[in-house]
Write a structure and sequence with these properties.
Layout lengths: L2 E6 L5 H10 L3 E6 L4 H6 L3 E6 L25 E4 L1 H9 L3 E3 L5 E9 L12 E9 L2 E4 L5 E5 L7 E4 L4 E4 L11 H12 L8 H16 L4 E4 L4 H14 L3 E7 L7 H11 L4 E5 L1 H8 L5 H23 L3 E3 L4 H6 L13 H4 L8 E3 L7 H10 L4 H4 L19 H20 L8 E6 L4 E5 L2 E14 L7 E2 L4 H14 L3 E6 L13
The chain binds xanthosine-5'-monophosphate (XMP).
The site of xanthosine-5'-monophosphate (XMP) has 16 residues, from helix 11.
Length: 509
């Protein structure tokens, strides 16, 4: 199968480039900048190489570089932002450490027609910039295709050797017709064939599962979310009964979750083990208010439970349903920074008995959902909202008690139910309740009350990296609010969270 390799120079959109190419139906994966030319040569059906963006300057001693020989492979190369500078630098052009960078949407003037910009007419178009350095002098045999106010060489090409550079980011949606540029590169310049679809993704993940797990037994932490459910079914299809799916009831799960899990996964013939560990979780979390500490305690307890099951079952591998956005926010990729040490990946203890394997680690949420549908997971799983590993623990601000868990769970259930009734549940990323560690005055019946407030959090997002609060009609919010205060006697006030991410995060902790 034809493939395009993206070399990672640390840009935050590096993985997005490869995802966009997969969207075009061509297989693409990200490799570290340090990948040697020999390693690249060995890749079968390599049709093109993309050098990603990155925050460094090509003149920094420590900045990531690749071998200059990549430009002599006779395989098309496209440099994006830092990659654009790097091509110029490697091929004896000149890069100026910028004093006048460009950030955000910028006007690009196309001066000359080029295979890369096929379909664009000469003149102006909008692109998305994020750089401080600029290419000042072209390498020999290259020509300038387009410029901006601050980047006199914003697009260049060496048509004969099929080497191209763009100062802007075609992979982000703010660049008008950015996909057209990637399409031109992948199909017209690289000549790659459209051979990548969901079935291929599934086959390649299954092959990896076979290679990594072999004849060993494995356990998977099944949360009931789409990621771990998809990972579980894929692994089960490869290793059958050698997979033990462990659902841990932490006491911090969604409403009637255990019944739901039993019902759904019995249908899928999973070797399912339900462990009620709620007492252990509440005991370990008693009095703990610090969010990161909560995550560590929960991560450790999960692993203790998995270890116990693994010992009983003689399993050697722990499967996790981690996906790409979990890893990038936890600072797992080579050059990314830690936003907060969250997600199940960040919560794992360092010394573990089990080998961790994450078969979905390179996929985005919507890609996982597509796979989930293809392998027969029903809508009740594929359309389900994301639920964090630590569960309600990070939605109860401050210390956690079984009572508070019950209040938060019930309030979240009411929110979900009301959104489902009006067809809004599937349109939003997540909808849940947050319980605050304060009390406020209210009046219920004829008496003054002093009770907890509940925060309603309903957000829209495409990839969990950014999010907006959902503009839910007031009547629906009012219905939710009234039901919460009527049905949960410990609550007398409901507020709606109108913060976007950034600056807020989706979860409150
Ligand atoms: P934030 O709060 O970081 O959430 O904007 C982004 C997405 O990640 C989920 N999330 C977590 N998932 N363990 C998880 O497994 C965690 O500790 C965690 N924290 C946040 C969150 O629910 C949202 O979908």
């Amino acid at each position: 199968m034809d493939r395009i390799i993206v070399l990672d120079f640390g840009g935050q959109y590096c993985h997005l480039i490869s995802r966009r190419i997969r969207d075009l139906g061509v297989y693409s994966e990200v490799k570290p900048a340090s990948t040697t030319k020999q390693e690249l040569f060995k890749i079968p059906n390599l049709k093109g190489i993309i050098l990603s963006g990155g925050a460094a300057s090509v003149y920094d001693k420590t900045s990531p570089k690749c071998s200059k020989d990549i430009l002599k492979f006779k395989i098309p190369v496209l440099g994006i932002c830092y990659g654009h500078h790097l091509i110029a630098h490697l091929d004896k052009g000149e890069v100026l450490s910028g004093t006048a960078g460009e950030y955000g949407v910028t006007e690009l003037t196309i001066k000359k027609s080029s295979k890369l910009l096929k379909g664009f007419s000469k003149g102006k178009t909008l692109v998305w910039m994020n750089h401080k350095d600029v290419v000042k002098k072209l390498p020999t045999n290259y020509s300038v295709i387009a410029c901006t106010k601050n980047s006199p060489i914003a697009v260049f090409e060496d048509n004969q050797n099929k080497i191209y550079g763009v100062q802007f980011h075609p992979e982000v949606t703010h660049t008008t017709n950015g996909m057209k540029i990637l399409k031109n590169f992948v199909f017209d310049i690289c000549g790659a064939k459209r051979e990548w679809d969901t079935s291929q993704v599934i086959n390649s993940i299954k092959q990896e599962i076979k290679d990594v797990i072999g004849k060993r037994k494995a356990v998977i932490g099944l949360s009931g979310g789409v990621d771990s459910s998809t990972a579980a079914i894929l692994v089960k299809e490869v290793i059958g009964k050698n997979l033990i799916a462990v659902y841990v009831d932490t006491g911090l799960m969604r409403y009637q979750e255990t019944e739901f899990m039993r019902k759904v996964f019995t249908k899928h013939k999973l070797n399912l083990k339900i462990v009620d560990a709620s007492d252990r979780f509440f005991k370990a979390l008693k009095g703990v208010t610090e969010p990161e500490k909560k995550r560590k305690i929960i991560g450790k307890l999960f692993i203790d439970v998995f270890d116990q099951v693994a010992i009983q079952e003689k399993a050697k591998v722990l499967i996790q349903g981690t996906i790409y956005s979990d890893r990038i926010e936890s600072g797992i990729t080579q050059h990314s920074s830690i936003i907060k040490s969250h997600h199940n990946v960040g919560g794992l203890p360092e010394n573990m008995m089990l080998e961790v394997f994450e078969p979905l680690k390179n996929l985005y949420k919507d890609e996982v959902r597509k796979i989930a549908r293809k392998i027969g997971l029903s809508d009740e799983i594929t359309k389900r909202h994301v639920f964090p590993g630590p569960g309600l623990a990070i939605r109860i601000v401050g210390d956690i008690t079984p009572k508070k868990a019950e209040i938060t769970r019930k309030a979240s259930y009411i929110i979900e139910q009301e959104l489902k009734k009006v067809g809004l549940y599937e349109k939003v990323w997540m909808a849940f309740a947050v319980l605050l560690p304060i009390k406020s005055v209210g009046i219920q019946g004829d008496a003054r009350s002093y009770k907890f407030p509940i925060v309603i959090r309903i957000i829209e997002s495409k990839d969990a990296m950014t999010a907006n609060f959902a503009k839910i009609p007031y009547e629906i919010l009012e219905k939710i609010s009234t039901r919460i205060t009527n049905e949960i006697s410990e609550v007398n006030r409901v507020v709606y969270d109108i913060s976007n991410k950034p600056p807020a995060t989706m979860e409150w902790e």
